Amino acid sequence: MKIATFNVNGVNGRLPVLLRWLAEAAPDVVCLQELKAPDERFPIGAIEKAGYGAIWHGQKSWNGVAILCREADPIETRRGLPGDPDDAQSRYIEAAVNGILVGCLYLPNGNPAPGPKFDYKLAWFRRLTAYAAGLLDLKVPVLLAGDFNVMPTDLDVYNPARWQDDALFRPEVRSAFHALVGRGWTDALRALHPDERIYTFWDYFRNAWGRDAGLRIDHFLLSPALALQLAAADVDRAVRGWDKASDHAPAWIELAETGPKTGRR
């Protein structure tokens, strides 16, 4: 099974890119972030024509997450992250797909830091960590995928010194990520590429794509049972170079019942 995550940076504006990638990569399950569209503007007709069922949690102009499933409809199990009934931002959606519980998330950016947006990011991270602990207690295959807006280590950023004070790289955020993973999750891309610089995001500014000045901020966290099935993981980085592309490239993993673990296929 091939599962991908893709911050599309506007599902309607980037729809040709998304549809082209779906046709070429043929993932079985896709987690999308930054839809930047209210629920009624989600392009379900085009998605279904491409062969995918979908659930989505939209928001006008900002945020928004969705889960797509090839030739099937995801069974929604949660909409919105628990822990703050006043939080109206559309950043989490969850579904049962092909025997796996898939949580699609878009963690807050948090800039400028320090400040209220950074405080919200850390609070959201705490809510995610608490909820993720409950998911592990279910003892079923679980996957958390999406744009975490975190570079966990120096290896995940092209120039660590340049990012020291950024909300995506501050020590509080990296510590929160490591605390989450340390509860029993596997960082899939890093597990299969322990010493390799792999990026999922290149800014539109300062020729970041041309210089390969990237960041790894899109992640897959696998529960222990699911980690045993991890067979491959990579990033479709060429998509970032397409016309009118998102500033993210799709990342993906492959799950298999048995077989050797490899970095790329």
From TrEMBL:
It holds the Pfam family Exo_endo_phos. PROSITE patterns: AP_NUCLEASE_F1_1, AP_NUCLEASE_F1_4. Its cofactor is Mg(2+); Mn(2+). Residues 4-248 form the Endonuclease/exonuclease/phosphatase domain. The record marks 149 as: Transition state stabilizer. The record marks 248 as: Interaction with DNA substrate. The keyword Manganese applies. The active site is at residues 106, 147, 248. GO terms for molecular function: DNA binding; double-stranded DNA 3'-5' DNA exonuclease activity; endonuclease activity; metal ion binding. Its EC number is 3.1.11.2. The keyword Manganese applies. Coiled coil: none annotated. Mg(2+) binds at residues 7, 34, 147, 149, 247-248. Probably binds two magnesium or manganese ions per subunit. GO terms for biological process: DNA repair. It is an enzyme of class 3 (hydrolase). Keywords: Hydrolase, Magnesium, Manganese, Metal-binding. The record marks 218 as: Important for catalytic activity. Belongs to the DNA repair enzymes AP/ExoA family. This is Exodeoxyribonuclease III. The gene is xthA1.
